[in-house]
Specification:
Order of helices and strands: EHEHEHHEHEHEHEHEHEEHEHEHHEHHH
CATH superfamily of the largest domain: Glycogen Phosphorylase B
Radius of gyration: 21 Å
Helix content: 40-55%
Strand content: 15-25%
Strand order of the largest sheet: 3-2-1-4-5-6-7
Largest sheet: 7 strands, parallel
Number of helices: 16
Distance between the termini: 12 Å
C-alpha cells in the first residue's frame, strides 16, 4: 500500500508547535507517511518538508492583516493547484482561520478530506459564521465547551484536550529562578507581553511602566519578562529579559501580567495568578468589540465560565490599572489570590488529559481513504 501524503498548514508560531506534535504522532501511527507543509522551524525539526515559511504570513489584527492579503492570495492560488492535482490524501489545517477557511474550501473542491485542528473562535464572533466550516470533514477542538457548540450546529467536532497539557511539568519555583539567574528567595513578577514582535512593540512600554509601579511598592521584587527572539525590549532597567523557554518564567513567578490568549492558559497550568491585558490598533478594536459575542477575552475566564482573572483591555490597558490589579496577587494569603487559584484549578481540570496530538492523529488516520 502506498504511504499516504498529508499536507499540514500552520501559519503562526503556536500553530507551528501544535502541528509539529501532530506530525510526530502521525509518523508513529502511519509509518512512511509523507508530510508537506506551510509552517516554521518546529515542523521542519519534526521532519516535515516545509514548502512555505509561515514567517511571511503571520499577523494579528484586522488592520494589520491588510498588508498581508496579497501574499495570502498568492499562497492560496499555489496550494489550489496542488490540491487540484490531488497531491494529497488529507489536508490538516491548524488554527489561523482567516486563511484556512479558504484553504479548506479549496481542498474540499478538489475532493480531499479536511481535518481542522484548533477551531476558529466562532463562538466569540457569531454562530452564523459556522457555515464557513461546511468544507471541513472533522473538527478537532481544544476547549471543552467547543464540542457541544459546533455539534449543535452540524459540524463533526471532537474535544481532543488542550495541547498545553502535554508539556512536561515545570521545575519548582526556587529551581526555576536559579535556572533564570534570579535570586531563589525573592518574590518575582513575570511579564508576558506576547510571542509576536508586533505584540511586544504594542505592549512593552505599558508592561515596563506597570512593573516599575509595582516595584516602587515592593522594592525587593525581581521582575522578569518572557521575551521572544526578534522583538525589542528597550530600556528594561532592572528587568531581566529571558529569551529562552517561557515555561521557566511561568514557573518562577509569583504573579504575572499576561497578554490575552493562550498565555493565560499557560499561566493557569503553572498555577500563576495573573491580570490579563491586550491592545490592538484602535480600528481593529472598534471592529472587534462590535463583533465579539462573549463576555470575556481571557481564555481562562471563558473556560471557567466566570471572571477568574481581571481583564484590562484597550482604554483600560494602562500601567496604573495593571499594577493595581497585580499587586494583591503577590500575596499568597490574600483572599483575591486564593479565589483566583481556585478558578485556575477548575481551568486545569477542564482542559482534559494529556495526549491531544495522538488523538488528532487518530482522527486523521480515520479520514484517509
Amino acid at each position: 500500500m502506498t504511504p499516504p501524503r498529508i499536507y499540514i498548514s500552520a501559519g503562526e508560531p503556536s500553530a507551528d508547535a501544535h502541528a509539529a506534535a501532530v506530525a510526530t504522532a502521525l509518523r508513529r501511527r502511519l509509518p512512511g507517511v509523507e508530510l508537506e507543509a506551510l509552517g516554521g522551524p518546529l515542523l521542519e525539526r519534526a521532519g516535515v518538508h516545509v514548502l512555505d515559511r509561515m514567517e511571511s504570513y503571520s499577523v494579528v489584527g484586522f488592520v494589520e492583516a491588510l498588508a498581508k492579503i496579497p501574499a495570502h492570495y498568492r499562497l492560496l492560488n499555489r496550494i489550489k493547484q496542488s490540491f487540484a492535482a490531488r497531491r494529497y490524501d488529507l489536508v490538516i489545517l491548524v488554527d489561523y482561520p482567516g486563511y484556512h477557511l479558504r484553504a479548506a474550501a479549496a481542498a474540499a473542491a478538489a475532493g480531499i478530506p479536511v481535518l481542522y485542528y484548533i477551531a476558529p473562535q466562532m463562538w466569540a464572533w457569531g454562530p452564523k459564521r459556522v457555515r464557513k466550516l461546511a468544507p471541513v470533514n472533522q473538527l478537532a477542538v481544544i476547549l471543552p465547551f467547543e464540542e457541544k457548540f459546533f455539534r449543535e450546529r452540524g459540524v463533526a467536532a471532537t474535544f481532543v484536550g488542550h495541547p498545553l497539557k502535554d508539556r512536561p511539568p515545570p521545575p519548582p519555583r526556587a529551581e526555576a529562578r536559579r535556572m533564570l539567574g534570579l535570586d531563589p528567595g525573592r518574590q518575582t513578577l513575570g511579564l508576558f507581553p506576547g510571542s509576536r514582535e508586533q505584540e511586544v512593540k504594542r505592549h512593552w512600554t505599558m508592561f515596563r511602566a506597570a512593573a516599575a509601579r509595582v516595584a516602587a511598592v515592593r522594592p525587593d521584587l525581581q521582575i522578569i519578562v518572557a521575551g521572544t527572539a526578534g522583538a525589542e525590549y528597550p530600556d528594561p532597567g532592572t528587568i531581566t529579559v529571558h529569551l529562552g523557554d517561557p515555561l521557566l518564567v511561568f514557573a518562577a513567578a509569583d504573579a504575572g501580567i499576561c497578554k490575552s490568549g493562550t498565555t493565560t492558559l499557560e499561566a493557569a497550568i503553572a498555577d500563576l495568578p495573573m491580570v490579563i491585558t491586550y491592545r490592538v490598533h484602535p480600528i481593529s478594536s472598534f471592529i472587534a468589540f462590535r463583533l465579539v459575542q462573549v463576555p470575556w477575552v481571557g481564555l481562562v475566564n471563558l473556560v471557567a465560565g466566570y471572571e477568574v482573572a481581571p481583564e484590562f483591555l484597550q482604554s483600560r490597558a494602562r500601567a496604573e490599572t495593571l499594577a493595581d490589579g497585580v499587586l494583591p496577587l503577590l500575596d499568597a494569603a490574600n483572599p483575591v489570590t486564593r479565589r483566583q487559584r481556585e478558578g485556575l484549578q477548575l481551568v486545569r481540570d477542564r482542559l482534559g488529559a494529556p495526549g491531544a496530538a495522538d488523538r488528532v492523529a487518530e482522527l486523521a488516520a480515520g479520514l484517509i481513504r
